[in-house]
Amino acid sequence: MKLFKKLECLILEKALKKIFVLFILIQPFLDIYYLYSDNIVNIFKFSPATIMRILIIFVLGVLFLFCHRKSKINYFIIIYAVLIGVYFVFHHMNAQNFHSLVPGNFNYSLFSELFYVIRMTLPLIILVVSYYQEITDNLMEVIVSTLVALVSGSIVITNILKISLASYTNLKITGSIFDWFSSSYAGQYFELASKGFFSYANAISALAVLLTPLMFYFLIKRLNAKNIILMLTHLLAMFMLGTKVASLGFVGILVVTIGMYFFFSFIKKEFKFNNNIGLMLLLMVVLSGLILPFSPTMNRNNFDQQVQSQREGDKTVVTERNNKLKTEEKKTKDKEHKEESPLVKYIREHYVEYSINGQFIEVSYPYVNDPKFWFEVMQLPIEDKLNFRNIETLMLQRVKEINNNPKDNWFGITYTRMNNIFNLERDFQSHYFSMGIIGVLLLLVPYLLILLFSGILMLIKFKEQFTFKNCSLLLSVLVTLSVSLYSGNVMDFLTVTIILAFVEGQLLRNVLFSKSKKNKKISVIMPSYNDAETIETSLNSVKSQNYDNWEIIVVDDGSTDNTKNKIDGFCQLNHYQEKIHYYYQENSDQLNALQRALEHTTGDYIFILHSDDMLANKNVFKMANNQLNQTNSDALIADLELVNDEGKKIGKQRVLDYYKSNRTIATQVLWLGRNLFVDVAFWQADVFKNVVSQNYLKWNTPHWLDLRNGVETLSVENVSFPFIKYRIHENNYINSEIGELNVLNGEIRTLTRLFPNYKLPFYNKQYTIFRVYNKLKLLSLYTPFYLKKPENKEAQILKFVINKRMGNDFKENLFLNSVVEFYEKQNNREIVIKNIDLSEKIYLGSDMRAFNKNLIENKLSEFYLNFLSEMEKGFNQIRTTELDAPRVKELVTFMCIDHKVKIIVE
Known about the structure:
Distance between the termini: 32 Å
Radius of gyration: 35 Å
Shape: elongated
Number of strands: 16
CATH superfamily of the largest domain: Spore Coat Polysaccharide Biosynthesis Protein SpsA, Chain A
CATH architecture of the largest domain: Alpha-Beta Complex
Number of helices: 38
């Protein structure tokens, strides 16, 4: 029963995570302008986007509470919900006692107010759920990249096509970015600034600002074509938006990011300075400097200054105008008017001359109800009257003053009333007016407290927590909250606050859930075969590490040179008898040697170092330990430095960017079954022993794939520092005929394991396109076209794959020919395998070298020759006994036909 409940919880946790990630990714779609149009809102009473968010968050909340039903967090959630409920009761009671000079008291609605409080609570639920979600760097990059592509990509495309909505008018723009540099568009920022098809320019600008530090983080961490294109697209989009928040915000974040990059490169030394990254950041600076002067942001700034100068006029005109206003106000005081007062009449006829916004004075807070207020406003300096946020604040202060209720400071005048006056474009301040101090404490201050707490904890644990990633997350939250204070329309805008809550939840998780920074033990597994000339160099590269908590397990796979003497001498010279352990076995190939070594490891991390390679530098172990302590990943992979026989650098093998996704598995199918990622990796010991050993070591399939039960990907992370210097020489194992067959066997097994789950139409053509992208180093942009269904052209693809390695002569190899023939025949035939001789060796993937050797030398047993003959005829069932079934299962797995054969046990 306990096992069932645990399994049930794991399934629900997985479902929760999937729904949660998808919910974050669809946020831009829920911000489309047309979902908030009057026609749509009138039908549903609220935007359908908001209703959809409430429903999905309700599902997430239920799943979360069920999965964590025994957690203390439930008590906190209950207490918080009670506080919100009690607050709302008092908030509503206070709203009943309201008086203003405007008839209707700005139309308070209990239902609308309750709906608003619920809406403000939703992101806090996301924050809690996010805190409990383990989001790896790879998944976070997918989320951030997707959001940037959706938001910035759509803004750039619609701007270039001139179909975007204008940021300030909701009409279509009349000019694209190419028109910014034309003098005919000078002063027409309202026709140039574009927001795509999104609702509010301020809010989408805040979202763009939120994503900017995270996009910079991934650009610096993984400089590839995809991230470069996304970053440049993001830059253009933020200038196209035409708001100060977006344009100047990008420039400010760019400057801070450059400072952070230098700090973490040269002072904190979290990573090495990369010239290419430095040039990329410099390019961003140059582009920003070239575009900003012509952008709608600067266009608007110049326009506003010009308007202010024109409206202000000379001092004589201003003085005469204000004197006339005071005269009309005096007439109103001197005489009772049953009809319209002189001041009201004068305001109506002349407010435009005083640069008063018509929406404010006629609709938001009508001058006919409170002419004295507008009399005071009209006498303000021109810059104060053109500052809309200032006028909005003055109107709300006046309403509070007229109501004269001290409880408004604590419970607010309600969001409904404030919104019916005007939604003050300055968050926290607007919420103070609408929700009061208590409302701000309950609904907004948690964001500030978490930010402050995270920052303090990062400083207290400076060495462990003050990392480039955490600083990027912190900066993302900080700039978003700063924008909310400056421009408003952020904290009650769900697209922004939901993603903000997601990021802040991850920040809090990072600073609280991070692993210990102690130097954990690294077990180095070193298979060796006749490498006496190079093994000392390999051992010395470990000895020279600025990191002492390591062990080396050497398994000599039947060497005939003086490898053992070299190791013994090295251990005696350095007193390493307790740190280096030597084991000898008859030659049985590298994978078996690794399995033997694995039995003797005692470390927290496992790293394979071949005896003809060496560690790249003296800080590899230290940096790997630090990175594994900061991440939730199963393993780290990195580029390889290529060296010749003399150890001189001759090049670099770039490791593809790893993503834990179906796209990566589909690409693996397309890449002829060859491992997409190098085998050199630092692994968490438990993952290596329980998962990797069963796939990579036992069956010679890619280390990052778990093919034991279906198809799963492990969590692997690219790092920016190299691990090893990989020696290139003619005697490399892959260059031998047996070595090539061994590798090909693993590739065929990988492909055939993936065939039941992934179908790639037009395989040959897609492969050609893949190769072109690979040659151009643009694979980060490539996504194969695939279907999650069984492949039906397996034989054709296998022929193509084998031909790429062996040419057309593969039919001379009995094993390869039998595999192809089997997939071509695929008939409904049954064979019988019973009473297998116990002395008969059943080969595993790690035994392919021995199998191929016997095959080439015509020494295969009669049992295997008969089985290969049956494969050439084709079959789909094997009838066997209970005793023989496990060996038959391994047999068909070795022959790469297990998913096509049903085993019937008598």
